[in-house]
Amino acid sequence: MSVITASSVTVCVGTKTLLDGVSLGVAPGEIVALVGPNGAGKSTLLRVLAGELRPASGAVMLRGRALQDYPPRALALHRAVLSQSTHVAFPFTVGEVARMGAGDRGGSAIDALADVALADVDLSAFGERIITTLSGGEQQRAHFARVLVQLACGEKAHGPGLLLLDEPTASLDLKHQLDMLEAVGRCARRGAAVVAILHDLNLATLVADRIVMLDGGRVAAVGTPAETVTDDLLARVFKCATAVSRTPAAGVPFVLPHGITTLR
């Protein structure tokens, strides 16, 4: 049974259709990467799955229950969301930001969860630092720690939940990109369902069990990395020439652009 299922979801803003009949199911322990060009509908779909945006038509079910039927507090224990950018205007410490993932819960157990989450994002030494003094990438990692605490609290209450990530690696250096993907993998191995928007196709092929390629608000392709990351599909969806190859060890696709000339 899928943790989350979207069926024929359509989202419109005025006369513009942002999603057009999109369907998706994500199983426990599965990592699904959403890829596609700018404006393809990736962030819109993630907002629908998070319950932040109600579709004009179609249905979204979380653990077999309509997503809109969850009260906000209950929903927060079933799914955690890392937005593309989160701004904190007040001088909270990194440790306080991590503990925010527990909501109004506190105590030594929450402190322990925060410590583990900060270690997962390589910020153990930053717990007392004011978050606004950190670099953009460090702040993103602190917010990921908050999301990990939220996911852990929900796991204790209801079992493994749903992790939704909007370009989680965009502001990170290479080491911390890989560290974050390792942490995401650990969540999946504990049974969490993961949906992540990733613009870096090489990272998507590295981490994802399945890739959903969106184009113009519709699903252009869905399948394993080997099935979806192909020269033909990338030319059709991204309008650019590529040279998809395979790494010798695992046969994972990786993409090399032919140059800066796009297909017209």
What kind of oligomer do you see? single chain
- Uncertain residue segments: none
Class per helix and strand makeup: alpha/beta
- Which of globular, elongated, flat, extended, rod-shaped describes the shape? globular
Q: State which percent range the strand residues make up.
A: 25-35%
Radius of gyration from the alpha-carbon trace, in angstroms:
19 Å
Largest sheet: 6 strands, mixed
* Helical residues, percent: 25-40%
Q: Output mean pLDDT.
A: 93
- SS summary, helix count: 9
Number of strands: 12
Taken in chain order, the helices and strands follow as EEEHEEHEHHHEHEHEEHHEE
- Distance between the first and last residues' Cα: 42 Å
Question: What is the spatial order of strands in the main beta sheet?
Answer: 6-7-8-3-9-10
What labels would you give this structure?
264 residues, six-stranded mixed sheet, 9 helices, 12 strands, globular
How would you sum up this structure, described in words?
- This protein has 264 residues and is of the alpha/beta class.
- The protein has helices spanning 42-50, 72-76, 94-99, 108-120, 136-158, 174-189, 201-207, 225-228, 231-238, and strands spanning 4-13, 16-26, 31-35, 57-62, 65-66, 79-82, 162-166, 193-197, 210-215, 218-223, 240-246, 253-262.
- The strands form three sheets. The protein has a six-stranded mixed beta sheet, sandwiched between helices. A four-stranded antiparallel beta sheet has the order 2-1-4-5, covered by helices on one side. A two-stranded antiparallel sheet has the order 11-12.
- The mean pLDDT is 93.
